[in-house]
């Protein structure tokens, strides 16, 4: 037996984190939501194999964090295992960007409120910054993923049929619809090959968000009810970190009449 070289280990571990096109989109969107974005634009070219772009108007990445922003197991979201008991973010493992770098080419453009201008960074397979230059983009972060799975032909072969590729587009749309419902304040635009596939505007509450996503016909067959819990920590079991948690003990739920 022999030890695998670091590049091979990195590639194999990345393929376990990033398993599909929709998983790339999911990880990047959740980074945007953790950065308090209210606008997210997702653009795909050739089903995402040629290009995936996720642009947001969030907080941006601080200059001090740039050197390690795509390094595996670096994260600003937790500091210890105790933090796992009170997660308020989607991401916390510090694996997503590093894994995406291992299986594609990644460019990140970012600007915080304190920066005079945005900067574009080009990353290598290890997540290190190899070059940078000024950019014209406003506050927020734009991640561009090029040549996805270029060094994982087996993974790319899974999408060898047009049917598989179209199914992935539908999965992405369903994912965005879910975020659109739980985030009323979020504006989303999803584009594939310059054609708008799905979009949602900002709305005031979850009921309006649900209506904007599923339509009035579905809403007409739903019925609202309220649930109140005095002590949510004592009476409810904490869901996994990947499931969105209610911010209040009192909330409204829509349920089917039939």
From TrEMBL:
It comes from the Eukaryota. InterPro entries: DNA_mismatch_repair_CS, HATPase_C_sf, MutL/Mlh/PMS, MutL/Mlh/Pms-like. PROSITE patterns: DNA_MISMATCH_REPAIR_1. It holds the Pfam family HATPase_c_3. Belongs to the DNA mismatch repair MutL/HexB family. PANTHER family: DNA MISMATCH REPAIR PROTEIN MLH, PMS, MUTL, PMS1 PROTEIN HOMOLOG 1. This is PMS1 protein homolog 1 isoform X3. It comes from Pogona vitticeps.
